[in-house]
Every structure is written in structure tokens, then in C-alpha cells.
Amino acid sequence: MISCIYGMVDVAVVGQYQGPQGTAALSIVAPIWTILYSLGILTGSGGSIKYTYYKAQGKTDKANAYFTLSLFLTSTIAVICWIGLTVFDDQLLRLFGADDILLPLAKAYLRPIQFVIPAYPFTQMLAAYLRNDNAPGFAAFATLCGGCFNIFGDLYFAFGLDMGMFGAGLATAIGVTLTIAVMVSHFFSRKNALRLSRVHDYIHKVKELVFNG
Question: From CA 13, how far away is CA 156, in angstroms rounded?
């Protein structure tokens, strides 16, 4: 819900600043979020199911093996997406419908976000594990922090500093970075039970995680 709200604010701010072309450019960028978030949900939900299953039995090493595996898979996916969206950004945006008029606008919005692309799948992956590590409220709070910054940052950067599309993208990039920073602070709390653990039977666990996800 929070993500949908600040996505809607993005559209409203850019639409008011840039007009219909700005809104159209955001629609072209939208599939990228769907892909990145979905991949994070894949590794997060797929692994956290098994994490909770073994944690409930007191088998913490087995539980954390799935957390470690999710962390590794998410990192791999994030790097691949990062390279792909940086090197082939023009081709992807044209695939999603950008023409010669909308391409510069879409790229202006995407430019600051390209620096933090790995953060997007990690927000979903970490949120899934925080919810299963007795911290569902904290996962929601982290998302809310990033979302609130994005809403007010959109207005400030786009209109206050007259940065337009780039400003809206910058607010989004800082917002998701803030969400990750808050989520990571959970690992320094006393309630944290998530640890890195040795992964055995790697291929079988990957298949299991992907199937669950």
C-alpha cells in the first residue's frame, strides 16, 4: 500500500511538472519496478518459508542456511539487473514503449535510480525475513520511512529545486536507500536471530527456494 501511494505521488508530481509526457515516461519505467520487486519476493518469500519452518523446530543452523542462500541469490540477481539496466537502459526503455520524445524523460528519471538498483530486490527479500524474525512492524516501519521521504522529496526536488524528472527519480532513489538502511539496523538489535550459516545441498535448496517463491 505504501509503495502504491508513493508511486501515485510520483505520477502526480511529474505530471504536474512535466505534463502528460512526464506521466507517459513514468509508465514506461513502471515495468522495471515490477520485475525488481518480483525477484525480491521470489527469493525472500521462497526462503523465509523454510526459515520459519526450521526456526519453529529449534534448528537455527538449517533455518539460517535458507537466509544465507536467499542473501546470495538476491545479491546475484541484483548485480545482473544492475548491469543490465545500466548497459542496456535504452534498449529496455524502447522495449517498454519509449519513443524519441519520451526516452530522454524516462532516462532522466531513471538516472539517479541506476545507482541503487540492487536495493529494490533487497527491500522485498529483507522485509520477508524480518516479518518471519518477529519484526513485522519494523519491516513496515522501514518501508514507511522510505515512502514518506519519497513523497516529500518528490515535491522538494521536483518543484523546490526545479529538478523535474531527475528530482523525482532522486527522491525515489534516496527513499529506497533509506528503507534498506532502516532494515539493516535490525541485524544490530538484540531480537535479531538472522545469521550467516553454511549451506549444504546447495542445488536442492535453490530448487526448493525458487519453487516456494
Answer: 10
